[in-house]
Description:
The chain has one helix and eleven strands. It has one helix spanning 19-34; strands at 57-60, 75-81, 88-93, 96-113, 116-122, 131-142, 151-156, 166-168, 177-184, 190-196, 203-215. A hairpin with a 6-residue loop joins β2 and β3 (88-93). The two termini are 20 Å apart.
Amino acid sequence: MVQFWNTSSDPIPTGSTGGADRFADHTAGINTVATHYYGTTDPSSGASWGADELGTVWYDSNNALGAGGDDLGLVMKRWEITAGGPTYGWRTVTARVYVPLEPNVNVLTLTDESTAGFVDLDLTSDTSAKAVAVMLMVEVEDSGTIAAGVYAELRKNGTTTDDQERRIHPQVTDIPNAVMMLVECDSAQVIEYAINASAATTFDLRIDVLGYFERI
Length: 216
């Protein structure tokens, strides 16, 4: 649907607009509103948008599936008052849906592991092309000395900031400890895991995918 309403190339009709043109403009406007300005072009660009357009929705299709970008699907944007207003602009409205996996999927089982740096874990076959995060059940066990420096950690692939990592610590020697954990994945549905063990060949790690969040 080509957008023909309140844009730089197709302004709102005025009092001097002829009857036939006005009817055509209003028909195009109804079609535009019905599709929420679906398209790759910012409808406010070059037009005089302000308070009268508050609440207008634009389905930005630049990253729609098969159209390049991050390929996660279109983005819904709403015309709102921006911080420090009264100025106006687009606010991205992030929509997510949770997809549970029945049954849950075991994606990693390691036993008697020693300390290891971050390793990629590919979840392509367990999620979807639009997945942005996974809900995991992570279980750890260590037969050595339990201490603050003994843990497994998970993170989005490529993350290097410590505060973006999720950690799980064994609580009692030789007894498993399990937690649910939400971890973001990159556009290739890859996360990373690492192990900090108390001694060589003592650490067990199991990861199961319970479900995933995808952008809609």
